[in-house]
Design the sequence.
């Protein structure tokens, strides 16, 4: 029997391990591409490389008027809803720009105080309402598991439409991980590729969902060693390292950023995630002074190494690093627009048309 969300109960689907959920989330009649995009476990190396190739094609086409008009004609008959009940600027605008590149008409809710949720409507009812008007829901929420739950609900409604998870609780941020992988692939494409590399993550690794998603995607590439540098209070959680161990990935924990920079091909910095503090000022009690990237760290970084950051940043990367060619965080942001365009095009089945233009 074909695996899709109409053939499994909500309880049974939610209970599955993440990797086992992938076939239920694929586009019907497609070639393994996602219909719903909920978590990093949906993407293996062949699919990641297809997405990267499609993003490259889109960015090349968009440089000419003819190519840009062709792209903009593809999805003029579709509408996308950006439902961002958690504050965001770059993630919102990146998805909005991706929709515009492909010609989608968009609507948005960015403050639930302006929606019927203010009157007591549940998030579930709000999303079901949006599905009546739109053909894609891009959602960012502080509520863990909501995107996954609503993917099942909409697939079992009279108008199934895809959900794209733009950040869900503390658990997953798959499109950020996609742009991070895309940035790594582009950074090393002429330098031996993305294998046998050392990737160092630094900062608030406990609550940073970008690290959780990217760490998993990196397991698709051979010889990747992952180093997690953080204060004890914010070290990477065990469920992440358990996955790495199960897949035979080399990893280690450390509290020494400066000592690990010289052996790193990429240093992925993150900010303090104090919006998740259970009590006011909780994060300020942790000494984070040794977990910042400045001129001394820059001097230690290999000449072909790169610095990454999902942004926004505070003071964890000094501005003196910004003009160094190894600083990739601004390119990461632009890469996000292209990879999200590729993902949306693939979701609606337009990969072949774009690649054949």
Sequence:
């Amino acid at each position: 029997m074909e695996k899709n969300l109409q053939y499994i109960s909500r309880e049974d689907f939610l209970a599955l391990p993440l990797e086992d959920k992938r076939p239920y989330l694929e586009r019907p009649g497609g070639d393994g591409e996602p219909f719903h995009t909920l978590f990093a476990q949906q993407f293996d190396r062949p699919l990641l490389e297809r997405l990267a190739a499609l993003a490259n094609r889109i960015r090349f086409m968009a440089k000419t008027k003819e190519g840009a008009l062709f792209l903009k004609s593809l999805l003029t008959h579709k509408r996308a809803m950006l439902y961002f009940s958690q504050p965001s600027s770059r993630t919102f605008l990146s998805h909005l720009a991706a929709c515009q590149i492909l010609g989608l008409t968009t609507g948005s809710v960015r403050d639930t105080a302006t929606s019927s949720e203010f009157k007591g409507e549940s998030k579930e009812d709000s999303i079901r309402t949006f599905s009546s008007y739109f053909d894609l829901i891009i959602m960012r929420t502080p509520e863990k598991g909501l995107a996954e739950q609503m993917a099942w609900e909409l697939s079992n409604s009279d108008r199934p439409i895809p959900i794209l998870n733009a950040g869900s609780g503390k658990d997953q941020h798959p499109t950020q991980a996609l742009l991070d992988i895309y940035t790594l692939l582009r950074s090393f494409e002429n330098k031996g590729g993305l294998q046998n590399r050392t990737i160092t993550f630094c900062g608030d690794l406990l609550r940073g969902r970008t690290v959780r998603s990217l760490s998993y995607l990196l397991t698709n590439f051979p010889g990747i060693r992952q180093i997690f540098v953080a204060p004890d209070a914010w070290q990477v959680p065990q469920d992440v390292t358990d996955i790495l161990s199960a897949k035979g990935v080399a990893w280690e924990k450390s509290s020494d950023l400066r000592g690990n920079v010289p052996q790193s091909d990429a240093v992925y910095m993150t900010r303090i995630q104090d919006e998740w503090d259970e009590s006011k000022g909780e994060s300020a009690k942790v000494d984070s002074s040794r977990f910042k990237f400045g001129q001394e760290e820059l001097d230690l970084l290999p000449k072909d190494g790169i610095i990454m950051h999902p942004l926004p940043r505070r003071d964890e990367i000094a501005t003196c690093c910004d003009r160094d060619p190894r600083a990739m965080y601004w390119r990461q942001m632009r890469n996000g627009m292209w990879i999200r365009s590729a993902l949306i095009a693939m979701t609606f089945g337009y990969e072949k048309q774009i690649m054949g233009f």
In short: The domain at 174-273+288-334 is CATH 3.40.50.1370 (Rossmann fold). The chain has two domains: 5-172+336-355, 174-273+288-334. The radius of gyration is 20 Å. The first strand starts at residue 79 and ends at 84.
